[in-house]
Every structure is written in C-alpha cells, then in structure tokens.
C-alpha cells in the first residue's frame, strides 16, 4: 500500500530547510542530496530522509531513518506513525501494531486507521471497531482528505468481507471532498462490481483511471467489467494497460 507523504507539512525552519523545500517541490533526488549527514543528528531530518525514501517507493530504505526519528524524539510529529506505515507497506503487520502502540505525536484517527488496517491484514476482529472509531473522529477534523483515510479503509474492509451493500452505502455518504481521489472511485467501482452493478462499476472505474492513469488495479478490474458488458476491445485495452503501463485513448 502507498505511503502518502507529499501533503505532509514539513515545517521546522531550523532543520534541513533546503532539503524540506526540495521535498515539498517533489524533487526527491535534490532533497536527498541536500540532507547530507544531517539525519544522524536530528529527528526531523531523519524523518525527512525516511519520507523521501517512502515517496520513491523504497520502504525498506525508509525503515531505518523513520525508526531512528521515532526513537530519538517521540514528540517528532508523525515520526512513529510513518514508521508504522512503512512497516505495514512491507507486510510487517505485527511490527506495525507495536510501533503504533508507542507514544506518538499524531492525530488519534490516523493512528486508529493504521491500527485498523494492520488488524484487518491480520484477520483480527478488532479491525472493524477500530476503523469505525477512526471514521467517527475523522469527521470532526477539517484536514483535507488524503490517504490513508478511515472511510476508504473501512469501505475496503467491508468489500473484503463480501459486504458490498454496506461498502456502497458508506461510499455514497462520503462528502464531495472525496471526489478528486482515484482511490474513492476505485473502491466504489469494486463494490459495485461485487454487487454485479456492471455499468455503474465501469463508470466509477473510468473515473479512477482518469484521475490516476497508472492505477493498475483499477485498469485490471475495469477490463473484467468490460468483458461482463460485452465490450471485448475495451476489456483488452485495459488489460494491456494493467500490465504494460501505456495509456489508452478512451
């Protein structure tokens, strides 16, 4: 699962400012070069080094600096949380739960979402109440919607439980702020497909790949949906897109 870091407010003016600015601009190579030896001395810089690695998809490289930041300063915002997320991305679910149990300077709904997802991955019954608590707390937070999000995590949980009607009800209750997220449309599309609402699923999945052209899971599912709709050419095009990464025109 991708670790969302680009929206993180990397703030301290006295710690690695040039590297943090480069990271905000999306220039991960420059940010890494500008860090130099700083991560070994500073919890913020160590966290930044981990986030750069995670943003590049290298969660193994992210582990050590994130763990160092978490251990160095439990009050470093989200350091322990992002360490737990990196562990989760590497399928180390028990370790992720242990990291989340440590004192952490993070919003409780974020911690609950991460905990619920790890519990879900482990097949434990505590997952659903954790995700529902996270969603209840998230609703009073004006922070812009981003992933991992408790509503989407709960919808995914319900889908995997075969509870498509509940997942769709939850997704349809989502405010307009979720519409720009490809993952929202993907979650909606796969719940609709599970309920065999093929035409509706196709529309949702088309929205998902329009917002995220490289969303291979959405392309793969859209291919299967188009076969159900007797659209073999479109089905084949999306199947190729799911494996080859080349955009399609329609």
Alpha-carbon Rg, integer: 19 Å
CATH topology of the largest domain: Serine Threonine Protein Phosphatase 5, Tetratricopeptide repeat
Percent of residues in β-strands: under 5%
Beta strands, count:
0
Query: Rough shape?
Result: globular
This entry's quaternary arrangement is single chain
At the first level of CATH, the class of the largest domain is Mainly Alpha
Q: How many domain modules?
A: 3
Structure annotation, total helices: 14
Q: What is the terminal separation in angstroms?
A: 27 Å
Helix content: 55-70%
CATH architecture of the largest domain: Alpha Horseshoe
CATH H-tier superfamily of the largest domain: Tetratricopeptide repeat domain
Please state the structural category: mainly alpha
Query: Describe the biggest sheet?
Result: none
- Poorly predicted residue ranges: 1-13
H/E element sequence: HHHHHHHHHHHHHH
Average pLDDT score = 88
Describe the model.
- By secondary structure, the protein is mainly alpha-helical.
- It folds into three domains: 42-106, Serine Threonine Protein Phosphatase 5, Tetratricopeptide repeat; 107-141 and 149-163, no CATH class; 179-250, Serine Threonine Protein Phosphatase 5, Tetratricopeptide repeat.
- The protein contains 14 helices and no strands.
- Helix 8 packs antiparallel against helix 9 (150-160) and helix 11 runs antiparallel to helix 12.
- The protein is globular.
